[in-house]
Amino acid sequence: MALSFDQRDGFIWMDGKMVPWSEAKLHVLSHGLHYGSSVFEGERAYGGKIFKSREHSERFLKSGELLDFTIPYSVDELMAAKDAVVRANGGGDLYVRPVAWRGSEMMAVAAQNSTIHVAIAVWAWPSMFDTATKMKGIRLDIAEYRRPDPHTAPSNAKAAGLYMICTLSKHRAERRGYADALMLDWQGRVAECTGANVFFTRDGALHTPIADCFLDGITRKTVIDLAHKRGMEVHERRIMPEELAGFNECFICGTGAEVTPVSEAGPYKFTPGNISRTLIEDYTALVTA
User: Fold this and answer.
1) Which of 26, 127, 181, 192 would bridge 143 by S-S if both were Cys, CB 3.0 to 4.6 A apart?
2) Tally of domains within the chain
């Protein structure tokens, strides 16, 4: 059984101080725990260097603003803190998790006077698959829950509360023998997976859903840039589920997944091929440069 995350060795940066891992605690009556007033980032360090650290820090601050609170550190301060945590925990290939939440001063829906706490933790997390294994493709379930209308939730924030239906969908998918789940939006259009964006290919071009009710991922933007450098067309558009039968390849992308091909999504089959392989190789070269 994997070691519980509250029993690990190392150091966590918390509210401006480096503290031993076991001492990084919050009170049970924290607003972030009860009301979901928390935002976070998912980042990777390759060889001790955090990929696109500035972009992640900028999004972290923006997520706080969208939840109506101010994270009390600048982009540069956050970047320095993340680097310090990576060094304190030995460097190498690590997952990096900044998180901010409302504290315990107020315990009701309104919490304007709550202290905003920030912590940064890192832990070892190698790439999920080698290229040969990736190219077999993972299997996706079709999620029961849908991404909400952007008028009903702050979909541009990486907010903890928005992941509740992702956890439920991921659990259901794994119970049914799938690796993840493809989620639709509130109008029944293809949206994303539970923690990654999704791309499809046809006639040498990429097709990906418009990111208006889910997070426009930093990895998603990176993949689009890499595709453009290869001269590939990228179409950001509305995609209906029945269109999936006409695509050749499918892959998901995100900090955790990196670039991972898909062999099936519900009843739809795909054949991982040259476009997926090329973007895997280009992405790997970029993050490890």
Assistant:
1) 181
2) 2
**CA 199 → CA 253, 269, 274, distances in Å?**
8, 14, 14
Please report the DSSP string for 64-119 in residue order.
Answer: HHHTT---SS-HHHHHHHHHHHHHHTT-SSEEEEEEEEE-SS--SS--TTPPEEEE
Does 90 reside within a domain? yes
93 and 139 assigned to the same domain: no
Cβ-based neighbours of 12, under 8 Å, separated by 6 or more: 18, 19, 20, 21, 24, 85, 119, 120, 121
Task: Give the torsion sign (CA, 238, 244, 248, 254).
Answer: positive
The tens digit of pLDDT for each residue in 109-140 reads 999 999 999 999 999 987 776 677 789 999 99
Residue whose structure tokens are 């600048």: 74
Strand partners, 124: 94
Which is catalytic among the residues 52, 134, 158, 170? 158
Residue 74's domain spans which residues?
11-124
| DSSP, res 246 | G
Using CA atoms, how far apart are residues 167 and 169, in angstroms rounded to an integer?
5
Q: Is 229 a catalytic residue?
A: no
